[in-house]
Amino acid sequence: MILVIGGTSEGRIAADTLDEGDGTYFYSTLGPEQDVTCARGVRILGGMNAEEMAGFCSREKIRVIVDAAHPYAAGVHRNVEQTARRLGLPVVRMERPREDTGGEDVVVCGDYADAVRKIKADGVRRLLALSGVGTIGKLSGFWREREAWFRILDRDDSRRKAAEQGFPMSRIVYYPRDDMESLMERICPDAVLTKECGPTGGFGEKLRIARAHGVRVYVVRRPEMPRSFIIVHGRHGLRREIERLLPDFYALHTGFTTGSCATAAARAALMALLGMEVGPEVDFRIPEGEAMHMPVMRVVVEGGSATATVVKDAGDDPDVTDGSEISVKVAYSPRPGITFVGGEGIGTVTLPGLGLEVGGPAINPVPRRMIEAELSMLYSGGLDVTVSVKGGADLALKTFNPRVGVVGGISIVGTTGIVRPFSHEAFMESMRRQMNVAVECGCGVLVFNSGGRSEKVMRREYPELPSCSFIHYGNAVGECLEIAGRLGVPRLVMGVMIGKAVKLAEGNMDTHSHVVEMNVGFIQALARECGCGEATLSAIGGLGLARELWGLLDGDDADRFHTALLARCLGYCKRIYHGSLEIVLMNDKGEVKYRRS
Q1: Which CATH number covers residue 405?
Q2: How are strands ordered across the β-sheet holding 445-449?
Q3: N or C terminus: which one in the chain shows less Cβ crowding within 10 Å?
Q4: Same domain, 415 and 430
Q5: Do residues 423 and 317 make contact, with C-beta atoms less than 8 angstroms apart?
Q6: Residue 370 near residue 260 (C-beta atoms within 8 A)
Q7: What is residue 565's three-state secondary structure?
Q8: Between vectors from CA 587 to CA 586 and to CA 592, what angle results, nearest 5°?
Q9: Statement to judge: residues 262 and 406 lie in one domain
Q10: Could you read off the pLDDT of 200-253 as tens digits, one per residue?
């Protein structure tokens, strides 16, 4: 059981993340104003002091507290800290990323008293405060003497709080009704005051608009969190901490891509090369910007280079690289920029279509950008970056790499940085890569196969086609057809077995058993339309598995039924893919029984 202290954008992200699990949680807010969906959570209202929170956690057997309250809710953070210390509970803090507050036109203040002193000392006469209704009293030392406007939430409780603090309502403006751009033109303030509220609070946009109007910005620094809190910066970090603290909360655990591993190792290596201290873990960012951390196995510095090694954690995904050692050597280079080199276990690209140079190392574009972003934050000179994977050449034989022309090792991949177990997204990304390579190699025909068994049959049927022409679609029939259409593939041949065919003939473009089950009623109706006899219809009614149809139907009934079945499959597929399409139906013995185009 988890207690989330919410009420913020981060709280909503926490709820969405916990809803992916199998466990339950409580979502606590002061009032009912926040619109948040808690599919697996219980919403509770009303503030709790430390004593009340400790009592609640004891009664409900809370094992983890997630603090997703506003960064400036210092009292809430103290209550959480005291509760956690008293009960021995871990606290995961959903923290907003910090943004750059540098520049001569930005004045950083330690607290609101410090802000009042600095604003008055600088001679500010007209102030636009974007710090919320809760800061009116804290800034009274300014607005009781000079002109100030406060932007608050457009709610009755916010208006009541402003009135209770004696602030003139004529100088209240509202969010989101009054946008900052119009306020700057209407009020013409000498200065703007805001909190260090991060991206979700629109800090960067506030700074941009103030600068465009030549107005100085005073920023009240965010209070530091208690040192005992485990800090995460988004949904992936939260999930991984919950997976660690409560292993049974999620049925399957997430992991890191090889791209993330190489990025973390590259950063650790450069830090060591620059003489910086490398701890047991290294921080890095995944493509969507969330800061993550990864354990470092070892770091070795030798002359003008340093090598760091991490161990791939794929979570519960059946990834062949799980547990592999991924090393990155970073060396100074006389050439500008970053040059990537393939070391031990990294494949070489031999075919076009992957977005990589033929003859170069199989380090995909997204991991390259991740590594470049991390290294450029530490060093602006030229660097050679050599990525290696221990045993990568053997591991590659268990992957799709030979199909896409990557030889001698594995690829450094990953578009999100995170491995989600049995991820459909990862599967589809692999399909896109394979089809891209086939098109770039000039394959005019692609052969879709549901899996290894059907591929053997189709390779026998089309021995003249190169290996890259054969694509596994798994259950994602519709999505693979869409990709082929977008790539302009002129001709497709699709091999199907009877189990997928009866689902596809009913219009199900995702044939996974979790999505759709065999519909005996549909099969009976189709058989009746084809003129099959009552004995056959009755036998179909007792069908347990689709492959039993091969023994139930024979002679003319079999021909009529399977021909109609393929016609239905073809009709639905042609709604998505408009090129030349042939569907081949095979039985469990590997024999091609029917074709339709």
Answers
A1: 3.30.2110.10
A2: 470-472, 445-449, 491-497, 580-586, 592-596
A3: C
A4: no
A5: yes
A6: yes
A7: helix
A8: 35
A9: yes
A10: 778 888 999 999 999 999 999 888 899 999 999 999 999 999 999 999 898 788
How far apart, in Å, are the Cα atoms of 245 and each of 63, 64, 256?
A: 9, 8, 18
What is the value of pTM for the model shown? 0.71
Single-letter amino acid code for the residue at 579:
G
- Residue 16 located in a structural domain: yes
Residues 215 and 335 in one domain: no
Tokens standing for residue 337:
């920029």
DSSP state letters, 461-485: H-TTS-GGGEEE-TTBHHHHHHHHH
Task: For tokens 């339309």, name the residue.
Answer: 529
Between these two residues, 134 and 262, which has the higher pLDDT value?
Answer: 262
> How far, in Å, are 22, 236, 238, 306, 368 from residue 261 at the CA level?
28, 15, 19, 16, 12
- For residues 313 and 321, what is the distance between their CA atoms, to the nearest angstrom? 8
Report the distance separating Cα 158 and Cα 424, nearest Å: 45
Burial class (CB in 10 A: 0-12, 13-18, 19+), 383: buried
149 with 179, same domain: the answer is: yes
Domain of residue 17 covers 2-96+227-245
Spatial contact of 489 and 466, defined as CB atoms under 8 Å apart: no
Q: What is the token pair recorded at 387?
A: 């990525």
Q: Beta strand pairing status for 91-94 and 230-232?
A: parallel
Q: For residues 507 and 182, give the distance between their C-alpha atoms in angstroms, rounded to a whole number.
A: 52
What's the token pair of residue 231? 């800090």
In a domain, 330, yes or no: yes
Strand 338-342's sheet: what is its strand order? 298-302, 305-311, 325-332, 383-389, 338-342
* Residue 414: CB atoms within 10 Å: 24
In terms of residues, how long is the chain? 597
* Per-residue pLDDT at 363 exceeds 90: yes
How many C-beta neighbours within 10 Å does residue 114 have? 15
